[in-house]
Every structure is written in structure tokens, then in C-alpha cells.
Automatic annotation (TrEMBL):
InterPro entries: Glutathione-S-Trfase_C-like (IPR010987), Glutathione-S-Trfase_C_sf (IPR036282), Glutathione_S-Trfase (IPR040079), Glutathione_S-Trfase_N (IPR004045), GST_Omega/HSP26 (IPR050983), Thioredoxin-like_sf (IPR036249)
Positions of the GST N-terminal domain: 32-115
Protein name in the entry: GST N-terminal domain-containing protein
CDD domains linked: GST_C_family, GST_N_family
Domain GST C-terminal: 122-257
Compositional bias of kind Basic residues: 1-18
Ranges for region Disordered: 1-26
Any one of the GO CC terms: cytoplasm
Recorded superkingdom: Eukaryota
Origin species: Chlamydomonas eustigma
Entry-linked PANTHER family: GLUTATHIONE S-TRANSFERASE OMEGA (PTHR43968:SF6), PTHR43968
Amino acid sequence: MQAIRHTSKLFRSPRKSSLRPSSKMSVEASSERPIVYDIPVSNHGARVRFVLYKKGLESMYDLKPPTSIGGLQSEQYKALSPQGKMPLLVLPDGTALPESEVIVQYLLEKHRDVGPSLLAATPELRAKANLITRLHDIYIASIQACMYRAMDSPEMRCKQIGDLAAQLDILDKAIVGPYAAGDDITAADGALFPTMVFCDFMLPTYFGWTGLWETRPKLKAWWATISQDPEAARIIKEVREALDGWAESDRWNKTGINAQVKLEGFKWSY
């Protein structure tokens, strides 16, 4: 079977169908192969793609955009993912698994005998990998939108940018090196590096950061290491190209971010 290519063309919406919504969802759910609903810019979806790439599973999974079943807020999609978020994995029997870390753990368990384990070598290092993933998911991913979404309150955006700086400092101390949890590349790296693409792209350009890497030496060394991994580099390219599209669409002006950053009395740069 032909490997999936992750380009913007891959995620184009299909032609409109005459199927009723319920029928259309049934068709998707009964696919011969599991379906991952995702788009290239999603840092959460990227961690799922990382596992697929790293373990050589691409030919076993179809990748489609949420728009192929109506979009994130459609009745069809929310019947499968009630939060209306991506990524979403739908198995051939119709079982729907939302949430990126749930999908990652399913893939690691389902395909434990295929490719690298993406697990750290010892219980202690596996605990460290889990900690790094939790630090990312609870304290960084939860506020990442302050870098790119419209917010009425510049005070709230400014606070979250400061919180993000503090959490990156904590993350810097947690990194073991050379990978997140030691000598082996793990799913913790996959959770972390797509979001760091966001930080690397947005914080210096739109918020004036000058010390994203320089003031965080362990994180800087880790970033240099993970960027050399072929599958990680592939995903970094995918996400960056999608972010280039955001920039070309003038997103940071349209969301009011550029105007807020120009206001006096706020600290944006770290």
C-alpha cells in the first residue's frame, strides 16, 4: 500500500456527496483502515503523526481533515469527538478515540512489536518521560493559544505569555538529554517538539523574544538534537509550512495581536 504523503493537498476536502449525514458518518466509520482526522498545523495531531512515521505505520492509516465529515463543530464530527477537537482516530469498527495522548498510547500498545518502542529504557526514565508529557499537556498546551488566537483582553494575553515563559523554564530543568527522557527518543519528544515549532515561529517574530533558547540551555540542546531526527524534521517542516500560511494570511494583524503587543505597559518579550 502506498505511504501517506503529508502535504497540504492531502488535507483537501473531498467533493460534496449526496449522502445524508448519518450515512456519510457510517461510511467513514466502516473504512477498511483506521482514519486519523487531523490537519498539518495541529501540534497535537503532529504527535500522532510522529508515532505513525517513526513506527512505519503510514500505509496502515488514512489521514483526513475534519472537513471531510463536516468540520470540527459539525454534528457528524461531534458525534465522534464531543469536544469538537482534533486529532481523532476512528477505528474500522467505528470506535472513536479523541485526544492526542490517548491515540498515541493506543498506537504504542497496538503496534508494540513494530518499529521503535518510543519508550524510555527504565521505569525511572519512563516516569520522567511521562512527567515531561504532563508538563507540556497541562501547563503549556493549555495556554498556547495566547500566541495566535484573538483575545479581547491584552492583560490576559500578557499574563499567559509570562506563564508560558515560566513553564518553559520548568521544562528546561526537566529535560534529561540528549532526548527528552535520556538516550532514547520517546513519545515525550513527540508530544513536545511540535509545540516548540509554534514557540520558535511565533515568540521571536510576534512577541520580540530574544532568549527562547539561549536562556534555556537544556531545551536548546534538546531542540538541536530532535531537529536532526528524520521523522521529527519531516513534521517540523509540515507544521512550519502551515504556519507560513497563517503568516501569509495576516493572522497576527487580523486577530489583533500585533496591536495589543504595541500597547504600553505590558511585558511581552522574555
